[in-house]
Design brief:
Elements (H helix, E strand, L loop, with lengths): L2 H16 L6 H8 L3 H13 L5 E4 L4 E4 L13 H13 L7 H19 L4 H7 L12 H13 L3 E6 L6 E14 L2 E8 L4 E6 L3 E6 L29 E7 L1 H7 L9 E4 L5 E7 L2 H10 L4 E5 L1 H17 L14
Antiparallel strand pairs: 1-2, 3-4, 3-7, 4-5, 5-6, 8-10, 8-11, 9-10
Helix pairs in contact: 2-3, 4-5
């Protein structure tokens, strides 16, 4: 018998006690159509293994609790399930203004009793797992809570938004449909009433937020799904352009092990390099990715992206002209 089935019986027995019905072994056996012997074992397990303060009340011919505040512990989980939650706590520790990390911390404390049974002390887990990153956008806890509550309750969210393109604050009222965690930043996909269309808003760029009292009817997933996935990176759209990049044999060692997009394809080049192809809806983010690899990558197609990269390199040569001696390189040894 699986642990989840047994736990369902524990929950029923617990709820009967909380409701003041004084259940006993025959009640448990009848309700779940199990033997009286099995029902008695379940009650013993609750008392001996789950710590339930069970007391048999002779006058009521059933069980009650010595401690009315008792609650059942978490459902038994596997070592892998415990480990996955505790690692997630570490990975999300710096996001959402501490809202997620605090919730994970509280949940993690409940799981530590389970973890201790597997020989995993909290100090050891903190020592052997960590998460690192840079360039992420911290979000005030109140903003994150307002956004998630608006999503769950289907209530419009009003805020002032400052776009990085022009740094001009604009008041917005939006209908949140999806919250995405992307590369260290929380991004809200919402229907903007000002633009009468779906837009993407970084929570870190919101201020003066307020959840409005009225509700809205969410639009079908097809109306906003193109803003979440389909193309490379955070910039999405309905129209996609196939991009092909050729990496040198040296850089290909890493690229072959990476996933840039679920629909990517890899093709080995004759020189030992590799060609990576994937769909893109907007060149802005992929340009930054390409430039970080320097001379280890070449844009094969499309021509428009190749031209944009070439223009960017020309601008860089004006900053770092040939023969520039502004930076002194110290000799080795």
């Amino acid at each position: 018998m699986s642990g989840s089935i047994a736990y369902e019986r524990f929950i029923w027995f617990h709820e009967q006690i909380k409701a003041g019905r004084y259940p006993n072994a025959p009640h448990l056996a009848d309700h779940f159509e199990v033997s009286l012997r099995t029902a008695k074992r379940h009650i013993e397990f609750m008392r001996d293994r789950l710590g339930a303060p069970l007391v048999y009340k002779g006058a009521r011919r059933g069980y009650g609790y010595d401690d009315a505040s008792f609650e059942l512990p978490l459902m038994p989980v596997t070592p892998e399930e415990v480990l996955s939650v505790l690692i997630a706590r570490t990975l999300l520790s710096k996001t959402a203004g501490g809202v997620i990390s605090e919730a994970m911390r509280r949940f993690g404390l409940k799981l530590l009793d389970q973890a201790a049974r597997f020989g995993w002390e909290p100090e050891r887990l903190d020592e052997i797992f960590s998460a690192a990153g840079h360039g992420f956008s911290p979000v005030p806890a109140a903003v994150f809570q307002a956004a998630t509550r608006s999503l769950l309750d289907r209530k419009p969210l009003a805020f002032t938004y400052t776009s990085p393109q022009d740094e001009i604050p604009v008041n917005r009222v939006v209908e949140p449909h999806h919250l995405q965690y992307y590369m260290g930043s929380w991004v809200l996909i919402a229907r903007c009433r000002l633009r009468d269309d779906f837009r993407m808003f970084y929570l870190s760029r919101m201020s003066n937020w307020k959840m409005l009292p009225d509700t809205f009817i969410p639009l079908p997933k097809d109306a906003w799904q193109s803003h979440v996935k389909g193309s490379f990176g955070i910039f999405q759209g309905r129209e996609k352009t196939p991009v092909t990049l050729r990496f040198t044999p040296f850089r290909a060692r890493w690229i072959r092990k990476q996933t840039w997009h679920p629909d990517q394809t890899l093709r080995d080049a004759a020189d030992g390099g590799v060609e990576l192809s994937f769909p893109v809806a907007d060149f802005r983010e992929v340009k930054m990715m390409i430039l970080q690899f320097g001379a280890d990558v070449e844009v094969v197609s499309p021509a428009a992206l190749r031209t944009e990269i070439a223009d960017e390199i020309r601008k860089m040569t004006r900053i770092y002209p040939t023969g520039d001696t502004a930076v002194e390189i110290m000799p080795e040894g």
